[in-house]
Amino acid sequence: MKMKVWVLLLVLSSVPCVSADGLHETSSVSGCSDSDGEDVLILDDEVVWYADFYNQKGVDSLPAFADHPHWKDGMYEQAVVNQQICRYNLKMARTAMKDFPKQRDAPSSVNIYTTLNVEIGVQNTLICHVTGFYPAPVKVTWKKNIKKVVEGTSITVPLSNKDGSFSQTSKLDFVPKGGDVYACIVEHMALTQPITKVYAVEDVEPILGPILGPAIFCGVGVTVGVFGVAAGIFLFIRGKK
Fold this sequence. Notes:
Blueprint: E1 7-19, E2 22-32, E3 37-43, E4 46-52, E5 57-60, H1 75-97, E6 109-114, E7 124-133, E8 139-144, E9 147-149, E10 153-155, E11 159-160, E12 166-174, E13 181-187, E14 195-200, H2 208-240
């Protein structure tokens, strides 16, 4: 069992709420460590709001077309208060338990995949999902054909797994082009060297290519067959004369 360096203040799970679409489940997690803090609101396993302590603001993760509730007003200020309480509790817990063992677990799994079926020249998104690491967070770097890519990249806040480890997901918006090679590079304090996962864009032949050939061949075959039957009938009639 993992000894958590993070102290969790609020864990509200399995709280049902009813909407026009049916039953939903919300949960809220607030936690801290010596160097980091987290305050997240989750709806049906999706983060809908989180506190960005670096930029000192709350971030609404709901898409633009969704309803944005006003009850989120004041949540960032409350998250700051939660962090102050959490760090005090962490200090007290260390004093009582003579500090926690420094446990580190490298990511157990790193996967890279696209959100949509790949079509050359059509906008798509690459996903790099990292899970099974402890403590949080990981650092994810994207590269295209060996060159570092920053534009179009994003990463989620660390989410806690049931076994006490964490998971994070990084995204890269891109337009597939045959021959391009993308790399997701993951760094973590428990790794002696980064983990790299590669995605290569394959050349895709136009749809008409493989279909048009057999169609033409079949058409020529039918035409030759018709001419053959016509020639046979002509010779048969001529022989009767």
